[in-house]
Amino acid sequence: MDREELTPxxxxxxxxxxxxxxxxxxxxxxxxxxxxxRVDVKSxxxxxxxKHGAVDPGAGIGSGGGxxxxxxxxxxxxxxxxxxxxxVVFAEKKSVQIKGSPRTIVSGILGDDTATASFTxxxxxxxxxDKGAVYLFKNCYTKLWNDKVQINMGxxxxxxxxxxxxxTPERQISYSSSVAKVxxxxxxxxxxxxxxxxxxxxxxxxxxxxxxxxxxxxxxADTTGKVQFSAWSDFGLQEGETVCIKNxxxxxxxxxxxxxxxxxxxxxxxxxxxxxxDETALSRKSVGEIVRNGGGIDMTVSGTVVDVRSGxxxxxxxxxxxxxxxxxxxxxxxTVEPVYDVRLKVVIDDGTGAMSAIIGREVxxxxxxxxxxxxxxxxKARGESDAVARAMAGKVLLRHVRLTGNVMSDDYGPMMIVxxxxxxxxxxxRRAADLLKKVEExxx
Amino acid sequence: MNARETAWRIFAGELNASSLERKGDDDTSPSYVxxxxxxxxxxxxxxxxxxxxENIGTDDEPMWKARVQDVTGSFFLNVxxxxxxxxxxxxxxxxxxxxxxxxxVRTYSPEEGRVxxxxxPEKIVQIDDRSRNLWILEAAESMxxxxxxxxxxxxxxxxxxxxxxxxxxxxxxxxxITMALxxxxxxxxxxxxxxxQSALRMLLPDREIxxxxxxxxxxxxxxxxxxxxxxxxxxxxxxxxxxILALIEELDDMRGKGAPRSEIDRRAAMEGISEAxxxxxxxxLMDKGLVYEPNLGYLRKI
Lengths: 444, 302
Prior knowledge:
Chain A is of the alpha+beta class. In chain A, about 20% of the residues lie in helices and about 40% in strands.
């Protein structure tokens, strides 16, 4: 390849590398790549750009292929190289730590006529984006996070301002706000409308991204269930009032759905259609419901203890992190003087489903009649701590109990952190009479 | 999600009448027995009277076989060395005793179309009669619930699985009931109502419970059908039951072996009850949980 043929490529490289590298040097390297090592032009250019640490504007400069243009609404979250023409809806510069070193990034929201999506410019030091202006973002890559597409600009990306006007879809209130009952709230739901009674509310001062904010959180309920909420703006919520919340969204913490609403949401006082909240009736769930719908707060289930799992009985904990440990070694704190504790890890099953439950010391002692001291004495007398687990299993296995607590949920199914447990005291004749009545009514 | 399989409260009669299996889609997914009322059962909670137990293995490596009787029939238990906890519990249990069992359902099919259902217990614990009654109540409630759901499917014969889900059934219920109706046909509701009747009679002994059903419905489907009417000597079947029950009590050797059947037959013949009738009545008494067979050829009151 002679000088003449190389010229267009040389020009491209010069454009990208700017005055970092002299023309002679680029030419020399191009010549080495192409004529000595006989690699193709595309690879040669990429190699040269990499070597000089330049932003490589695309897998193939001048190769014509590689990058395609897409609308935001068409992005799948798996694009490796894509060009996007979009308006900056919102952008801010932030300093972050990436692998221990400080970095300036720009993040915000981009929109075109099809949709909006969040974006991040990972090398944002010299990137200044004007809100409302339209840019062509070349060689972006996309990722999926929480089922939403995110647009990323790495060191291969180029951002060019375009002098065009662009309308973006209304990001505000509800183009498809769905009405839901508390029992139907699931992780990941956005844009939902609920009518709830505020059971309790308190304000908390927290730090969000280093800035102090006041969040109003508490418990809300309707006739189907209770849910924790966080209001990110002050709606003047009062205990006992019934409100209709439009454009709320659901985030989950360990499988427990939480209702969130803020300045994009509308809160209006409505007539009390919920009535008095019967907390006992509300919290009563069948295990089957919990397995299908996920966790929640203040739930009560009745069922049979069908298994007592390993990790029950007398256990040792690290005095610093309170984690359960084997022997005297804490994974985080090395050799420690363990603190003894008793607990139960059981499976409770009511015939509609099965779930785990963790029962702490106080309730375990009450349920098994075996105190921590008795457990330690028993372990000492037998020379093994498994004896405690066996003795405790003998006390609770196949017993009917009623458990109350918060239920978390993960891949292994729901798990209740038991706050209170009681022996189930079903009125068998009354329930049998109820059943008889139903059967008779249906048969007669 | 890998949810643990539910322990179904289900009467022995319904479980033992099952002849349909739904194998898992791959090696790691569970298999189910689909009962005539459409429950997809992998694990069971059973409760009743353990009427017999036998170690068919060795002392070192026991293999227990046992029967646990409820108001409809018997659960058949097999406990081997892979259920050490249940095996240890078995060794310490005396018959008869009220027990509750958590176990996995196993099937055995010696020939096409014939399926025997047994339980492989994970846990077995002696319980009191209150717990036994609570189990009967739960099993009855569960059966009633399923009867209503099956009825929904039967009255909407064109409804597919998704239509049933739209009517409020869970996907497992809709799938199970659809498979059950395909395989077993519409269930004979009088059989299940009679089970409910016996259960409720047990739970509410002071109430006169009559669901207007023909009495003497054979309760355990795996049993041989016997002719209802044999030449009667003026005694009602209830009277005959009382006679046999009294004989079993009288002839009991009180050392745990029970009353020999041959002797019961001889004495019953003197009362005008034929050998075939004794057989029939003692089966009925066993089904009602009033007598059990501690040894082959012997009967004893519970």
